[in-house]
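Reviewers of the previous submission asked for a worked example of the structure-prediction workflow described in the proposal, so we include one complete record here. The input consisted solely of the amino acid sequence. No template or homolog information was supplied to the procedure at any stage.
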Amino acid sequence: MSSNKRSTRNSFDHIACESKWWKTWLEKNIYTPDILNAKKPFYNLMMFPYPSAEGLHVGNMYAFTGADIYGRYKRMSGFDVFEPIGLDGFGIHSENYAIKVGRHPKENAQITEDKFYGQLSKVGNSYAWDMRLETYDKEYYKWTQWLFIKLFKKGLAYKGNAKVNWCPNCKTVLADEQVEDEACERCKSIVERREMSSWYFRITEYADRLLANIDTPLKDNGEKVSLSKEGKSGNGLNWPEKIKIAQRKWIGKKEGININYPIENTDKTVVCWTSRPDTNFGATFIVVSPEYAQKNLLSAVSAENQIKLSEYINTSLNKSEQQRLLDGREKTGVFTGLYAINGLNGYKMPIWVADFVLSGVGTGAVVGVPGHDKRDFEFAQAFQIPIIRVVSNSGDNSDIRKIDQVQENEGVMINSDFLNGLEIHEAKEKMMDYLEKNKMGEREYNYHLRDWLISRQRYWGPPIPMIYCAKCAAKGVGERQDLPGWYCVNETDLPVVLPDIKDFKPKGDGTSPLFNAPKSWKEVRCPKCNNIAVRELDVSDTFLDSSWYFLRYPSLKSEANDLPWDNKITEKWLPVDAYIGGAEHAVLHLLYSRFIAMALKDMKYLNFEEPFPFLFGHGLIIKDGAKMSKSKGNVINPDDYIAKFGADTLRCYLMFLGPFDSGGDFRDTGMEGMQRFLMRVWDLFSNHRDVILNTSDGEKVLVMMNKTIKRVTGDMDSFKFNTALSAIMEFVNLLRDTADNANETKASLSTNEWNSALCVLTKLIAPYAPYMSEELWVNVLGQDFSIHTSKWPMFDEKYLVEDTLDIVLQVNGKLRAMMTVDKNVANDKEKLIKLAQANDKISPYLTGVSCKKIIYVPNKLVNFVV
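From that input alone, the workflow returned the following structure tokens.
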């Protein structure tokens, strides 16, 4: 038994330990790999954080810690791990907070930076601290501006006038992806629609590639593209399915056909895109968007109808797209007085204008088939338009008693001439063939995805590096024919430095705060005619800053300065090996980054087109059953818990809450429990360092040690950090029980089994508790610094062979008991059946009944049929 006479070491002082080892790690620079000469590079990256000066909360630390634990594990597994950190500090999020607290964004950025890095340093993450970047650093946004120029010269950036989403609170335009349920995704204000001139990127040109690569990435020649540096071809992106679904849905590719309908008594034609041409014999009306009517139909309607139409159009155009699409809203519309002719049957379809039809979807004109589309059905009911059913569940008219609902399911065609009796998918193909053959339509794909709007009428962001010359515009000349008057800033003049201005607040009238910049900054010489020209005064969206940051990190120390990255380094380290982040970026950041990488590959700047072949989506930490937010008052400051319990306790507790991809509910009692566990670990080393085991206990320890190594290794590979910790806890319990029952000596040497077990335990817990493990490794076990660059333990298969087996005991096929037996007995039918019959949970079922049959499966099962 353990000796109670020997003195107990002092309890673990987490404050002193954290301070000591943090300084040592920085001095030795153990977390920055040899970027140029790394033999097994592994790029481990957390999604770009964008904190404010308020600091990080426990939910943020959860994400950072999980990513760091995985990186530490890969480092100990022999990889040269590069785990950088930086700060996405430009943009509305940071600027809004600066306005709220009455600071200049530049001043606020420095406060944010100091607090952010200070908090992260406390939790003990293994970042390459000497390779940080901030998006507001002019040495960084110089290359963001360079990227804009390259996209412009490639024809992928353009300026256009269109109705845009306007946030009245943030006082800037928003991309479609930044609007959620009619509201700004940042401040939750209801968005408005405004006509504005804005800069866009042609992400729609990459819609097919973005979609195809999700599942079957292809090279230009049709071969599967290599997504990893090892040259392995994949069957698509190794991402959580919910994120892949979100991207597919946002891209929204649908096959359909544009159908031409001549308008009666005019020389005009209305073209409608539909994905269900099979139902066209049931078409009873056409409805067009207000924008379509304004552009194409007003001149063809009567003077009386023009007045009604104009009033309705103007009202509709003041609504957001989300308002116009809102489910359950009362349908509105105006009849134009015009009729379109269905070439299939000569049916005269009234043409209506309705705001639920959007100009950017399809052609902006929709053919109404109310029997088989819910929205069409509601519109037809509202305006007493006929409803015709052409798809039946039964294949005849027997299920059509009354048109009181919509049939949107699979079925068989009826009332459709040459399509009758066909299943809808077969009918769709036959209808499209018919329409194309008879020059009535043309196949075409439609997409939900829209071009990426990047202009922002704000101050805190990279100035868009463009110059406008009115004199050149008047002559119709410019850097590109489609944009007269516009020129790129010369690349040698980059960066266009954001000027310091006092009045930086957004105006709200559509103009940029950079109108307040000095004249000497706003006015420049035209690169073409040398006359006075002006700079573009909008800044670019913060998502442009974060769309390429992962390319910059590895090259931060490179002396190459002709590109944002060093090609040799990029070929070694990219694409990212493990990308870890939240599902909230499923569309915004991930879609934009993929587009940028594809465009750069096409421009021969990169040799890959998918930046994140592997993505792990972490869950969320909640408090009191709700997501952490300041408005709910449930935000938890990690600094307080680190001060009280230590960084190791916080890290372990966060990872023990639940599966890393699910998150969990934060409770103080859980923190206290985790602290007790770590103190038991510390006590094991402090008071049971020198244990001599007998043969039986030594064997048990070796078996449990190897089982634990295997379990933890498998869980680490699959991000199951909570179950890995459970396995470690079971191992600790065994060691403590064994130590309590073993003879101890005061000698400095211990048995090999015990020493091996303590070394393995320290390594297994190192990614979770980096400070304590370092202290144990160096100052208790006497090993060479550092445990975090030591080798991950390997298990020995011979210790994993089971001496016993669990046998299932059934009566009439129902599980009644489990029985553990020696593996030799499990193969002996007669012995096993006798033991099963004597089992106290089985014998009652066998008393007083006849046994018809005994089913025996070696090593697995005994089933009594009674």
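The longest strand covers residues 157-167. We consider this example representative of the routine output the project will generate in years two and three.
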